[in-house]
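Entry type: protein chain
Record version: 2
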Amino acid sequence: MSFPLQEYMASLDNACLPRILQVCSGVYFQGKWLFGSGFAESSLLNGGYFEGSVYEISGNEVSFSTGDVVKVTDMELSSICCHDVDNDETFELPVDHTGLMKVIPEETPYSTVEELVKLRPLGLNSCLPVTFASHSKLTLDGVALGAGATLTVVSLLEDEKSCRCRVRLGPDQPPAEVTVPLSTRGEFYVHQGEERFVPRDIATSPHLRSQRFCFENATLGNHALILSPVYQIRGVMNLRKNLLRFPSSLAVDVVDITDTCQDLSFLTPLTLPEVHSQPDQAFPMTMEVLEGPETSALLKCSWLAQLQKGTTLILHQRSTSSMTVLSSSTGRKSRQYFLVSERYGGRFRKRPRRFDSTYELYEASTQIPGLKLSVVSNHEEVEEEGLPGLALGEQLEVIGCQKQVQLPCGQAETLVCRRLRDSDDDEDEDPDGEGVREDHVYLPLYMQGQFVELLRDNKKYTLEVLSNKVLLDVKVVTRDPELENDPLVGFSCLRIEGTTLEATIQASFPDTPELCFLIPVHRLSVTLFRSQQPLPWSSNQSPKCSVEPVIEVTDQFLREFRNENAPLANPPPRPPKRNLSVPQAAKSKGSNNQTLWNRRSSSPLPPTPNVRHEPPPPPPARKFPTTIHTSQRSYTSNPYVGMSSQVKGPVEKSEDVYEQTEELSEMLKKAKETIVYY
């Protein structure tokens, strides 16, 4: 039997696929077949079936010819078709439409209770309880019911010859239950139920879509509608190397010939995950691209542009291994991102990191205990907000995080740090050698600041050793000897964003079978089929392959990676709001350099009689490059850094922010030697 394509596809589910369909009637337009541009009609006769007449408009197949044979491999719900019974019009709703719909009761009465209960399209298991009314008088279990009395079916008895119904005998009487034989005759009308459904549930339920519905919200319309699903169908045709996509709403009739056409040969489309699931014995194999990637939003590889329809690939082997995600620092070039295999043979050296807030310091300290850092810019004390004063060049060591610390503005979570002092400072502050009192500073996690990591590590590390160090800054100091052009060399800094377990396929092109690259299976959408071309080498003499271990990716890949590995911990509580009615505390006396001078003296000198002590004039402020504000941010978002923390105005691009940081440290060291303390 033939069925309209829309009706036939609505009766299927993905578990029934694949199915082979033959077109019984095509679509005519002005007495002709509807042809698309760029396609010629084929008259190939194969086993009595007329093949190859698929026509395309705007990238979608829109018409078939009588006799065409299609193998349906997949289908996906794309929209909801609504047929207006009153006006004989059709329109479509999106799959995620949230408007609620209610059942319209049928106007034709049922002649027996059995018809009402068992033969309703909704089905017994899905429809109970059902409320109906009798057009005539009834006597059930000795109870006389007048015309128009309503009964509610609550259960079907085990003998399936009767059912239990609830009936209300009077307005002031409780409801009673009676046994109603299914053979009871009369005129019974079903009442409208209280259940409400969304269009998707109706279209995907065989019982519901056989009934009429209307929207509960009258503004959306109150016409009687019959809903049905519209699928986007994927399939292939015999003797054609095309992956077809067409909607199930095409006005064609089809017949299922799956059981009678097993001798027809069709291409078997395979996705990359399906190829990766093949056994190891199936590799190496020759595959042809049936459908190239629609977009390259995640990868930026030189070989990606060659994965077009008709391209032949050699798939050498499959693997699942750990890969590291790296991102470059800002500078003269735009930021770049890489997915690096554990096969990478280069060597790295750690680089100091920049931090723009205390919260970023806290995240880094959880990875590296005893983190030491230097303050890059002055921060004045704000007593009412619990913000301590920090001077340019101060060195701190992170001790840990302490909760419920009492600050002038209330309790808050703080990062406890210890001030590090030079040996000269210790002698000045402790001339008697009795020991130096530890100076602790409490930095609220909502505090913004500029810090740079103090790092004295010149060792060379492999990527395997560093891969578990999240948010670590490194630089390639020894290139991979197996790579002619190492793409990671030349970057002043690379940040380790994290590691991921990637399923990959080692592939190459037939003209250069020894130059292999890695295809991330779940990061690229490509459809392949097994090619009849032989491998480009003799048996048992496979070439020695070199594998490109670095895959350049896009910022969208990095965003997806961060979403997949987002931390589960809740952010710290927000800072208390400043009371604007209270005037701010007076700023520290003198300039920032005077603040540094005051902090260097742990206690004032004893006064000398008749001698007036005044602090020396501050030295001229040394101007540092404005590029010190350029920083490499951590991917862990700080909920306290707002727009006000961003640098305003034009900022010069830095060739190497970390080299300038080292120069800054050297300049600070020389500046300390020239300062005279009193």
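Comment: The two ends are 105 Å apart (CA to CA).
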